[in-house]
Amino acid sequence: MAIHNAVAEQVFGTMGTICWTGQLIPQVWKSWREKATNGLSHWLVLLWGISGTFLGVYAFLQRLNVPLMIQPQLFSFLCFISWGQCQYYGEKRARAVAFLMTVSVMAFFGGLEAILVVTIRPMHDKGNHVPTNFFGILAAVLISAALLPQYWEIYRLKEVVGISILFISIDMIGGVFNDLSLIFKKEFDAIAAASYTLVVVLDGVVLVSALILNPRARRRRRAERAVLEAASLQISSVTSRSASRPDGCLGMDTLAVNSPTSRPRANSRLSMRSLTVSPTIMQEEGRHIPQQPNRKP
């Protein structure tokens, strides 16, 4: 049962709004700074932006506190900005195309929210809450479904990359504050609470995955780097022996050591994997990886 306290309701609602307003700023900044969105599912931010539209409809019709009504609007705006970055950096679309796509999506869903609020308000005021509850539940479903593509990215890459951990952390904290705001509301709103609680739980899965998978990925890259360095030393050794010969050829002793009969064939040559440098390792060593724009029309 809710414990009515108007001051606590507004305070926690405001704190939740601040978190959910600023949560995506680290993600937008990260994508802009790195000029890449690898590892960030564009479906995540798109579906979250759409869910904010329906959550906004629900918040206005239910007359939640003002911070909780403003919150979905800012949340959707930043989600669509991040989605536009995915189109530009990730999908390699032209800047103008990505900009027009982003503005069009914002305008469409902003207009849709306004139309839904105006058309459903009379029914809601007459006691028919079915449409209102439908959009509240739809928002919760979209918030949950949006993280499924991100989970796939984590599974595919075997680590959490591309998505800002600070963004996920702030998002989860904002969900907690929103739930606390509803607890102090005069009438507890179970549907809104379900939406916020799902955010907390699903964000928690991403954070736990980062704590478990990212250290493993770092160890894996260190092992790959060690193999690469060993391969480089072996090649340098063979090259130096060849250069020391007057005729520039390997001596019989070197050929004997590397001949198939002297040791198993599997150990006589380097595997292609040992000679392959992953982009992550090259980035960590400060090497430049040329990128081809290859923008889509």
UniProtKB/TrEMBL annotation:
For this UniProt record, give its keywords in alphabetical order, as a comma-separated list.
Answer: Membrane, Transmembrane, Transmembrane helix
Its chief place of residence is: membrane
Q: Does the keyword Transferase apply?
A: no
Q: Can you say where in the cell this protein is located? A: Membrane
Organism's domain of life? Eukaryota
Transmembrane spans: 40-60, 96-118, 130-148, 160-184, 190-213
Q: Which GO terms describe its cellular component?
A: membrane
Xref: Pfam families: PQ-loop
Question: Where does the record place the region Disordered?
Answer: 239-297
Task: Provide the topology term for how it sits in the membrane.
Answer: Multi-pass membrane protein
- Which residues fall in a compositionally biased region of kind Polar residues? 256-281
Q: Does the keyword Transmembrane helix apply?
A: yes
Alphabetized InterPro entries for the sequence: LAAT-1, PQ-loop_rpt
Name by which UniProt lists this protein: Uncharacterized protein
The record lists the organism as Laccaria amethystina LaAM-08-1
Q: Lineage of the source organism?
A: Eukaryota, Fungi, Dikarya, Basidiomycota, Agaricomycotina
